[in-house]
Amino acid sequence: MKIKKVLICGSLALAVMLAAAGCGGSANGENDASNTVGTDLTHLGTQQNETSPGTESNVIFGASELLDDDFSFSQGLDENGRWQGVAALDYVEMFNHGAFTIPASVHYVSDEEIQILIDDMLLSHAVPTQITDRPVAYGDEINIDFVGSANGVEFEGGSTMGMGTYVTIGVTQFIDDFLYQLIGHMPGTVVNVEVTFPEQYHEASLQGVEALFVTPINYIAGDPIIPEFTDAFVEEHMSDFDGIETANDLIAYIQEFLQHNAVMEYLYEYLMTQVAVTSIPEPLFNYFKQQMLQEYVDEAMSWGMDLDTMLDALGYDSVEALVEENREGIEIDARFSLVLQAVAEDAGITVTAQDVADFFLENFGSEDFSMFEEFYGLPWLKQFIRNEKVLEYIRENAVFA
Questions:
Q1: Gyration radius of the chain's alpha carbons
Q2: Do 28 and 158 sit in the same domain of this protein?
Q3: Would you say 353 and 370 are in contact if contact means Cβ atoms under 8 Å apart?
């Protein structure tokens, strides 16, 4: 069983993450779309609008001269994904990356930690006791269906489609006094709920409209029935994951997952803060400064405002003040990138265009990475994947104390 990596490149990421099963799920089956242990391929770093970095998005930046008008993610990188004109080994005091020591306190995984994840997973697959022998009362969590109509015509979005939904009277927000009309009725009965949509309702065609919701009460949700952690449970819920067939298989998988996360977190922290760097080349600091500013520009655009207006709302009196506030983070990003390149230089780790295609084939199911190349540029993608290789190289060769 191979654990996928979480990779960080500056403050943007193209991440391949292993997510814990169903953590935070409801015992009554709510929010259970991901109630399995699995590999979740997550892309963090896309913009919140359709404008590519370095193009029209900078038009609304304002009068400040700090933002590079043609910033792009591959800016300052050569065709191999290395910083142009920068020999990272000249700035980084090299450490024993080929036999990096991981303290026992970092990689040790206790039975209690494993049990917490198992308990969360079991809870996410719990089902409620179905109470049907008493009427609905205020504060009850109940399972209902409903079909809504206005003037005898069903309207879009006004039905549960017979799938049932959980609501809690006094907590869940429905229009008018919808849920309060269910109080006193027995499970198994159908209640004709009459409501009036608010005048300011988001759907204009329903504003102020009187509606009827035919509402079967399925049951009152009681205490959860939590399944046992058995081979049968694993077989039922983990059948899509290769190599996980028994409870012991899943325990080993969780242990590896927790250990991997702890080791990588320790490694990130070490590379970012503990490796000696004599100085940060100005092009790197400027790059990560521009990247940070671009993120703020994109955020401002997503709110329909210019950067100066958003910064004023956030309490910054200038772009310069924003940069100064974020100086430490910018320097950490630059240090991290410089250290990763230095290790790659020292260990001879490189990336070709085929390596990029192989990465996307493995993680996305296709060698076509043209969409990502258009957004980030091939040099950035090469740097990103090279950084993954560096991190994996250090982890695979680490000495576990």
A1: 27
A2: no
A3: no
306 and 386 share one domain: yes
Q: Is 78 helix (H, G, I), strand (E, B) or coil?
A: coil
| Burial (CB count within 10 angstroms: exposed 0-12, middle 13-18, buried 19+), residue 171 | exposed
Burial class (CB in 10 A: 0-12, 13-18, 19+), 220: buried
Whole domain around residue 139: which residue ranges?
A: 127-225
Q: Which two tokens stand for residue 298?
A: 């994109």
What span, in angstroms and rounded, lies between the C-alpha atoms of 305 and 42? 28
* DSSP notation for 225-250: EPPP--HHHHHHHSTTSTT--SHHHH
State the Cα–Cα distance between residues 26 and 21, nearest whole angstrom: 12
- Please list, in sequence order, all residues whose beta carbon lies within 8 angstroms of the beta carbon of residue 119, skipping any fewer than 6 positions away: none
How many C-beta atoms lie closer than 10 Å to residue 275's C-beta?
19
d(CA 137, CA 173): 16
Query: Which of 225, 243, 268 is the last residue in one of the domains?
Result: 225
* 3-53 pLDDT tens trace: 333 333 332 233 322 222 333 333 343 333 222 222 222 332 333 333 333
User: Closest by alpha carbon to 192, among 216, 208, 209?
Assistant: 216
Query: What are the percentages of helix, strand and coil residues in the chain, rounded to 5?
Result: 40, 20, 40
For strand 399-400 and strand 101-102, is the pairing parallel, antiparallel, or unpaired?
A: parallel
Percentage, residues of the chain above pLDDT 70: 83
Residue at 4 is within a domain:
no
CATH at residue 211: 3.10.50.40
Dist. CA 272–CA 61, nearest whole Å: 31
161 lies in some domain: yes
* Pair 237, 213 in one domain: no
Q: How many domains does the chain have?
A: 2
Same domain, 359 and 252: yes
Asked whether residue 169 carries a pLDDT value surpassing 50, the answer given is yes
* 175, 200, 225 - which closes a domain: 225
Instruction: Please report which confidence band the pLDDT of residue 243 belongs to, taking 50, 70 and 90 as the band edges.
Output: confident
* Whole-model pTM over 0.90: no
Helices (H) and strands (E) counted in the chain, each on its own, are: 11, 11
Give, in degrees to the nearest 5, the angle at Cα 43 between 39 and 48.
145
